[in-house]
Amino acid sequence: MSLRCDLIVRDATIFDGTGANRFKGDVGVSGDRIVAVGDLGAASADREVLAGGRALAPGFIDAHTHDDRAVLCGPSCMLCKMSQGATTVVIGNCGISLSPVRMTSRPVPPLDLLGDESWFSFGSFGEYAERLANDPPVVNTFALIGHMSLRVEAMAGDTQRAATEREAMQMRQRLAAALAEGASGFSTGLYYPPNMMAPTDEVIAVAEALRATGGLYVTHMRDESRDVLLSIEETLKIGRAVDAPVVISHHKCSMPENFGRSVETLPFIDEGAKHQKVDFDVYPYPAGSTVLMPERVRDDVPVRVTWSVPHPELAGRLLADLAREWGLSLKQAAERLTPAGAIYYQMDEADVQRIMAHPRAMIGSDGLPHDSFPHPRLWGTFPRVLGHYSRDLGLFSLEQAVHKMTGRTASVFGMVDRGVIRVGAYADLVLFDPATVRDVATYEDPARVSDGIIETWVNGQSAYVYGKGATDARAGRLISRNRL
Ligand code: ZN
Ligand code: CU
Predict the structure, then answer these.
(1) Mind listing the domains of the chain with CATH numbers?
(2) Measured in angstroms, how far is the CA atom of residue 94 from the centroid of ligand 1?
(3) What is the pLDDT of residues 352-404, one digit of tens each?
């Protein structure tokens, strides 16, 4: 009997996600798994896709997202990711997660990046997980629990201070419960007020919950500028104290006076890696994006407004232009716009490339899906790495580029049977054209579908087709660290 599959992609150039050399072959899928790889000339399938030599890779894993809410609202909200070939997202980053906290008034920034209080309606991670089970996401979802969400709940909103021992203990218990219900780690955003009020000891006290499940500690560090080395040290200390593998979020050297300092930070991280598990993600742009913080704007770092509650019509404008038109200082103009979001042109391209090329780097978009004029990373991250950085600049091979967004990420986060093309792995796949793949989204026109991503499959089901858009498949699942 010859093999019969649900789907065969024939005549593909296979990038298997491990970093190994590309090879020609066919891939057969039945149900949600890859069932055959190689010459499947004798096999047949319900649907056959002729790849014509184009690239087939494991679906990309977005190592850093704020998609907690976007995964709940169906294919339209996730088009930005599926159209890049992403099939799995890591949510709950930077200390911000939609659960476990119920809110009755507007969340303090940066929690409001996820939306207003009406979205914070999950009293436990279990309730959030149940929602994902009943109303499946279009991409696989891997969840972290945010320190800020835990703080708001445990400290009854009074967060401009260190937590008491009792409050830290309550956060630890809430985190332990969430981990038992399928969350995979703990994230902090110590850079942000009011989280910056949390001393290292508070973070360690909460993170202690990770020990039992082997969960990850993921952090937007306290300082990514002058004191970036001290912050890496603090991060490593927290990881060691609770025996947790560490992921440094969106690694960067921020602000002009720190340009070039990735020559210090990367060897420092490598040194740490001799003694404990530490990795990092990075997005492929020299500008960052988060909430607009008036007290932190500077004249040597241009700022673009991404949303504003009092002035929604000004999304997309440069803060310096608005300040000039209003006859105000940058800080005053920013105050007039808040609550608001912004893009900060705060990095050096050479650092971005050095960090991305490092063997420990994973690709994460850090895209902000609810911004009205988002940073282009929301729509362009993965094609930009494949097209601009790998193919056009030759920063690394296409095998390495794919590895940084698939196999490497799956192994760091503990996503079992994902991030690789091999028999038995989940059929999360992306078909793309290495000759034409490229990001189309720009700072001026950010919500644009990328070129060259032909089709994306999530757990064996077609989720996105170029030129047609998202299908109505909702084949994504909650996936948990080191669990089948
Ligand atoms: Zn962050
Ligand atoms: Cu983030």
Answers:
(1) 57-287+346-417 (3.20.20.140), 288-345 (3.30.1490.130)
(2) 4
(3) 999 999 999 999 999 999 999 999 999 999 999 999 999 999 999 999 999 99
C-alpha 329 to ligand 2 mean position (Å): 28
pLDDT given for residue 75 in this prediction:
85
The answer to pTM > 0.90 is yes
- Is residue 297 within 8 Å of residue 334, measured between CB atoms? yes
Dihedral over Cα of 139, 145, 151, 153: its sign: positive
Q: Which residues of 180-200 are buried (b: 16+ CB within 10 A; e: fewer)?
A: ebbbbbbbbbbbbebbeebee
Give residue 110's pLDDT band: very low, low, confident or very high (50, 70, 90).
very high
* pLDDT band per the 50, 70, 90 thresholds, residue 67: very high
477 Cα: distance to centroid of ligand 1 (angstroms): 24
Residue 299 CA to ligand 2 centre (angstroms): 24
Q: Which ligand is nearest to the CA of 97?
A: 2
The fraction of the chain above a pLDDT of 90, given in percent, is 98
Tokens linked to 175: 């985190």
- For residues 202 and 215, give the distance between their C-alpha atoms in angstroms, rounded to a whole number: 18
Rg (CA), the chain: 22
**Centroid of ligand 1 to alpha carbon of 221 (angstroms):** 8
**208 alpha carbon to ligand 1 midpoint, in Å?**
22
The pLDDT tens digits of the residues spanning 168-194 come to: 999 999 999 999 999 999 999 999 999
Cα 58 to ligand 1 centre (Å): 26
Which bound ligand lies closest to the C-alpha atom of 189?
1
308 DSSP β-pair partners: 340
Do β-strands 121-122 and 101-102 pair in parallel, antiparallel, or remain unpaired? Answer: antiparallel
Quick check: 328 and 373 in contact, CB under 8 A? no
Sheet containing 60-62, strands listed edge to edge, beginning at the edge strand earlier in sequence: 60-62, 86-91, 140-146, 185-189, 216-220, 246-248, 278-282, 361-363
Ligand 1 geometric centre to CA of 465 (Å): 31
321 C-alpha vs ligand 1 centroid, how far in Å? 26
pLDDT for residue 1 is more than 70: no
- From the CA of 252, the nearest ligand is 1
